[in-house]
Each structure stands twice: as C-alpha cells, then as structure tokens.
Specification:
Elements: H1 5-9, H2 14-24, E1 29-32, E2 37-39, H3 40-56, E3 64-67, H4 73-84, E4 88-91, H5 98-108, E5 112-115, E6 127-129, H6 130-133, E7 150-156, E8 164-169, H7 170-184, E9 191-193, H8 202-211, E10 216-218, H9 222-226, H10 228-237, E11 242-245, H11 247-257, E12 269-272, H12 283-289, E13 295-300, E14 310-313, E15 324-329, E16 334-339, E17 350-355, H13 367-373, E18 374-379, E19 382-395, E20 401-406, E21 410-413, E22 416-419, H14 420-427, E23 433-443, E24 447-456, H15 465-475, E25 484-487, H16 501-508
Parallel strand pairs: 1-10, 3-4, 3-5, 5-6, 9-10, 11-12, 12-13, 24-25
Antiparallel strand pairs: 1-2, 7-8, 13-14, 14-15, 15-20, 16-17, 17-19, 18-19, 19-20, 21-22, 23-24
Helix pairs in contact: 3-4, 10-11
Keywords: Ligase
GO molecular function, one term: phosphopantetheine binding
Domain AMP-dependent synthetase/ligase: 18-364
Length: 509
C-alpha cells in the first residue's frame, strides 16, 4: 500500500518523516558535501551505526548530547541519531570562545560530547570520535523520538552574560512545518543549503525543510560559504530551490546571483529571517529576477518560538515603503501587542507577545529568566502561556504586522527615547546604502549622541555622507539625527549573519 502525503504528514515528528522519506526514496541524494553524495539509504545506515554507539555508552530518552563537529554529512547523521535515541542535541559552535562552550556544558550537563578526534578540550565530559562511531555496525532499533521529547537545545545570549538554553520539543518543531508545508510545498525535488551555523536555529529550518521530504541538503565548506562568487556558482550547480538568508548575507551574495539569468537558477523561494529586512535593498534583485520566480518571503521568529512565527510574501508595493513588514502569524499562533511603556499611544506599537504550539516551555535551569519572559495571561477564564519577545511591532494600514525594532535597541539621548531602527529605515532609502546601523555613543565634545555606520554597494559612490545628513535633516527631529557618519568597507557581522552592534560600539571607543 502506498503512503499518501496526508498519511506521511500525520506522522508525529520530523524525524519520523525522514525515515518515511528514506523508505520512499532510498537512492535519492540526501546530503551533498565537499567529500561525498550520500543517499537516503546510506544516511539511514550511518544513523543506525551512531545510534548503536550512543546506546553503548548509555544514551537514552531524556538525555542530552553535545556536538562539536564541522559542517558535513557526519554532523547531520549525528544530530538525527541523537534524536533517534530520544535524546536532545546541543550544538557547540567550534568558532565560539572555549569559555562560552564550557559555560554551555556546565549548564546542560550532557552525557556525551561528539567531536572529530575523541580528544576532550572541554571540562568534565565523556567524548566520542564521530569517525569511530561511523564504523560501528548498523543495527536497526526503535525510534525513541516522541512529540513531548526535547529535539534540541540551542543557546542564545543571556542578559546576565551567561548563555540561555532553549529546549525545543519535537511537537513544536513538527508544528512549525505543519504550519508551512502547504505553502512551501516541500518535496523530493527540493534542495537547500546548510548555509547557517547549526548553533543558529535557522539551520533547523534548513535541515528539515528537505530531509523530511526526500530533498537534498547541500553543505558548502567555509570558503565557499563565505565567498559570494563561489556560493552563487554552487547554488547554480546544485539546482538549489530553497535559499535561506539573513538580509545582511543576501546583500552580499545577491549581486553574484544576479550574474545569472533568471532561467539559469532553480530557485523557488528565497526566505529571509534573523534580522530586520529593509525592502528597498531588494530593488536591484527585483529588476533582474522579479518577485514571483523565486518568491521572496520575509519571515520573523525567534529561538523561543521555534525558528519562524510569521511570514509575508514580498510585493512590488513593499519595495516602495519604509516599513519592514513581517506580515501574518503562522497558523496556530495567537498574539498580543503590549504597550512598551505607559507613554505609548494606541497605534504606535508595543512589545509582541506570542502564544501557540511552537512556543517553548522556558529556559533550561533558569527559572527566574523563564518567569520574566514566559507569562500566563487569562482570556475568557482560560490561561494561555505567552512568550514576551522583546520585539516592538505595530499594525500598518493593511492590518499587517510591521517590525520596528528591539525593546533593548531603544536608546535615550538627552532624555528622548529613540528607536534606532526608525533612523536606519529612513537612511536606508538612499540607493547607495547596502548595510546600515545606528548606535548610541558618548564623547566629551558631544555627550550622548548617535553614530551612523554604513556600507555602500560596490557600483555606488561611497561619498554620500552629505546626502545622508540632508536626508536626516529633512525627515528627523534634531535629537534623532546622527552626529557622526562612518563609512565601512565591511559591516561587522555575528556568526549568525546579523549586524554585530557590539563590535561597532567597541570600534568607536
């Protein structure tokens, strides 16, 4: 009897969908990295071998296993094998400071760390070598992943200086894809890049948008990933259909993609996430490719609400506005907009609170942090659990949600409360601007003031500071105008592709 899509989509976890895909498409390529093309059948065997190795050291349901591996087929096999045992994986970014990774290990207390050589650079942890694990004879066992079980724990920056672990269940992960399957039509002909660090939850979306449906995950090496010309060639060679990018990364990579003709690329969707999108920066792309093939989708979300929470299909009209529209919430979500302070007037926006099956339960081992960010709110005598995102939003005239910025990006200059995102949105109208960031600084000459840091497109004149000053003068009150403007060759980015405001601030000291 042949399984229908509805039968498959009723399976309880994304991991169950992967094994269903492996049964349906055993010879299709599941993973393509710099060393090999791995079929679904072979990847399944790798997983079974790693599972057996994990069982040999006592890993079972409810445990945690940390992973410190480079991007590649072995990494993906490890993540899926850990989940198969009923355990949760904890990604350790190999480029992060050792101190941060040790803080994560001290907090999570994993049963095991998987790395490349079996040597421990971490404190008080059992370590296993992935290469030895892959030689373990494969023996099929029961899939212990359950909807209520934790699939992964990703650590985000904490206000106390210690990273916060966010446990995400298989049910929340499945809810994300149940909400998006019908629109994106994930299928066995899709291919996507593992472009983002597996310590960044955008990677979760990249992995499961193909491996649960019989598609191909293409894993570039770091040189290719960080070289726009090589990345564009890989997207062409591998017939990538789903491309996920932060706006900052796309601003660097898109000019190289524009060297191809529309019919040369297999792209169906380009999905933006991770940071505020300035739609005006897409004008050059729109002139070359249009907005329907591929479709451009702006998605908003945070780790605590399982990657993505809202979506908006980008239209020509969006490119003519200064709003960063995040659109409508995914099915299953409910939301409230809470005024950011007592002075906020109706319609000016407020903090976004989210409730629904993708909202996680809280932070690992941090009850005080959890109680401050996850709150129960009564509605019709029923209490619903909401996550306080810290993001400021409002409705536009069409009733869509518009992202304004972070609560913690509000700065006070001479008593005025200023949302720097508003200034960035205005100045980004200038056609030469590629990336822009406005930060607060202080000096003995000017006291507290604003500094505008920006990069320009390669084919544009970088001497635009007088024009930016005039734009600010025409549209902003005096207290919101940057005092200094600084052209940068490259905008500093975090490992997740977001503007690194901390590095910018330090560079001004």
């Amino acid at each position: 009897m042949t399984e229908t899509n509805s039968d498959i989509y009723s399976l309880p976890t994304q991991l169950h969908l992967f094994f269903a895909a492996a049964d349906r498409f055993p010879l299709r390529i599941a993973i393509s990295d710099t060393h090999q093309d791995l079929s679904y059948a072979t990847l399944r065997e790798w997983i079974y071998g790693i599972v057996r190795a994990l069982h040999s050291v006592g890993v079972s349901s409810g445990d945690r296993v940390a992973v410190a591996l480079p991007p590649g087929a072995g990494l993906i096999a490890s993540l899926l094998a850990i989940q198969y045992t009923g355990a949760a994986y904890i990604p350790l970014d190999r480029n992060a400071p050792r101190e941060r990774n040790n803080l994560i290990l001290d907090d999570a207390l994993p049963k095991l760390v998987i790395n490349e050589d079996g040597e421990s650079s971490f404190t008080n942890c059992l370590v296993m070598d992935i290469n030895r694990m892959l030689t373990t004879p494969a023996t099929e066992s029961a899939n212990a992943a359950s909807p209520s079980g934790v699939a992964y724990i990703i650590y985000t920056s904490g206000t106390t200086g210690r990273p916060k672990g966010v446990p995400v269940t298989h049910a929340s992960l499945r809810a994300l894809f149940q909400a998006t399957e019908s629109f994106f039509r994930f299928n066995e002909h899709d291919s996507t890049l593992l472009y983002h660090s597996y310590a960044f939850d955008f990677s979760v979306w990249e992995i499961w948008s193909v491996l649960a449906y019989g598609g191909k995950l293409v894993i570039p090496d770091d040189e290719t990933r960080l070289t726009p010309a090589k990345l564009a060639q890989l997207i062409y060679n591998q017939n990538i259909t789903l491309l996920n990018q932060t706006p900052g990364a796309f601003s660097v990579n898109s000019p190289w993609l524009c060297r191809f003709q529309k019919e040369d690329l297999a792209l169906r969707f380009i999905i933006f996430g991770g940071e505020r999108l300035n739609f005006r920066t897409l004008t050059h792309w729109q002139r070359h490719f249009g907005l329907t093939s591929p479709v451009l989708v702006n998605m908003y979300g945070i780790t605590e609400t399982t990657v993505h929470s809202s979506w908006h299909i980008i239209s020509q009209d969006d490119l003519n506005k200064d709003e960063s529209v995040i659109g409508e919430l995914l099915p299953g979500f409910h939301y409230l907009i809470r005024p950011s302070d007592n002075d906020t007037q109706s319609g000016e926006g407020g903090e976004l609170l989210l409730s629904g099956p993708q909202v996680t339960s809280g932070y690992l081992n941090q009850n005080n942090e959890s109680n401050g960010k996850f709150v129960d709110i009564e509605s019709n005598r029923v209490f619903y659990r909401y996550y306080c995102t810290g993001d400021i939003v409002k409705h536009n005239a069409a009733g869509k949600l518009v992202y304004l910025g972070r609560c913690d990006q509000q700065v006070k200059i001479n008593g005025y409360r200023i949302e720097t995102g508003e200034i960035e949105s205005l100045l980004a109208r200038h056609e030469a601007i590629r990336d822009i960031s406005v930060i607060a600084s202080s000096s003995t000459t000017h006291g507290p003031h604003l500094v505008c840091c920006f990069t320009t497109f390669p084919d544009k004149d970088k001497n635009v500071i007088p024009e930016l000053r005039e734009l600010a003068k025409q549209s902003l009150p005096v207290y919101m105008r940057p005092v200094y403007y600084r052209w940068l060759d490259i905008m500093p980015k975090t490992i997740n592709g977001k503007v690194d405001k901390q590095s910018l601030s330090l560079s001004l000291e």
